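Q: I'm writing up a methods section and want to include an example of the input and output format. Could you take the sequence below and give the corresponding predicted structure tokens, formatted cleanly so I can copy it straight into the document?
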Amino acid sequence: MSARRGSLTLTRLFVKGAPPRDFRNKYLQSIRLRTFEPLKPEDESVEASGWCVMERPFDLEFDSGNVYEDRFVLLGMRIDRYRIPGAMIRSQLVDEEQKLLHRSGKNRLSRNERLELRDKIVLRLRKKFPPSTRALDMVWDVDAKTVLFFTHSRRVLADFCALFEKTFGLELDEDSPYLAAERAELPEKLARRLSEVAPLRLSRGKAEKPAAPPEKKGATGRAADGEPPPEAEEPLDELFQRVETTRFLGPEFLLWIWLRGEFVNDGVKLDDGGPYHVWLDKQLVLESALDKNERVTIRGAAPADGDEAREAVRARKFPVRARVVLQGPEREFATGLDAPRYALTGAVVPGVINSDASEAFLERMMLAEKLFTALDKLYALFLRDRLSETWQAGWEPAIQAWLEEESVPASALQHINLASGKRASPKKR
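A: Here is the clean output for your methods example:
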């Protein structure tokens, strides 16, 4: 999981606000103030984190040459943690207790004596076993206001966002299906529908009914039936609420990619070149929205083609993770997509052949940006179907017919193909 080489497993975040004009000098000072400080055996904390030079976790000396690359800020977040096995501590604690009881002649030790003894053992073991070290790359495109952080760990992401804000004075928003929808530049009519969209119900091709609105209150603040109003809850952040209530669009996006290959022959136009052919490859993970432990994983060259995948969808499981291939006329991209989070896993961009390390990095970031743009454009096409009449008139009856292994109604195919700008016929199976 490196910014300079290998596949890309990362979370995209978006910077709120803009850096100051003289940010290069100011940020260099701020980074030095929050440089990683190694753990000491006597420290109370078991974990420490801070900045290090990207790809060099033990290099804690910063200068413009190792922090800035063109318009990018490059850093590593180093995390050290003591990982002494609890069984080892308990075993030594039993031995030391017996020795202390024998010397003191007591029958038992007090709680404070046991705690003090445990602290001595932990300190001794920390001196023998140094903390584990890991470092995660961060690439901040200052012009585009995007940050690539190379992990999916929610706990590490929370620590990273806090460190970023303390260092640079700017907040971060983690990418999601909702933020990707905001980037889609939808027509005003479809943008309004985004706030009302409800999850697809895999039964008779209808959507789930949205939750019932709260009861109306009169001027006295009481409910319409005269009962006292429920205790007021603290309002949730509006963006957080919209992000969390639209995560289902990610799995539906994967389902759309999957079934578009069933219903439409032609590729999709994502840039100024020729059409892209898009399909799901190698691995498909389907999960119940009601119970995340109900999960099916299918592996193979065409994981979505078998009866097992269709049966999982029929059992109301949606694709939550899959490998998406985007094959264009000039290049091919492939990436795993954690759909509810809209996060990339093991993304592969075309290889870079350049002997100059700086030029190679910039070209790699350019190719990564092309992948992000292609995926966003594909998602925007999905939203134009999902939020328009095409969904009810075309996609929902087509999905239902596919689930029941029936012929897709001609009217449904007509709506799907007209929306795609194609006159394609459905694939023969």
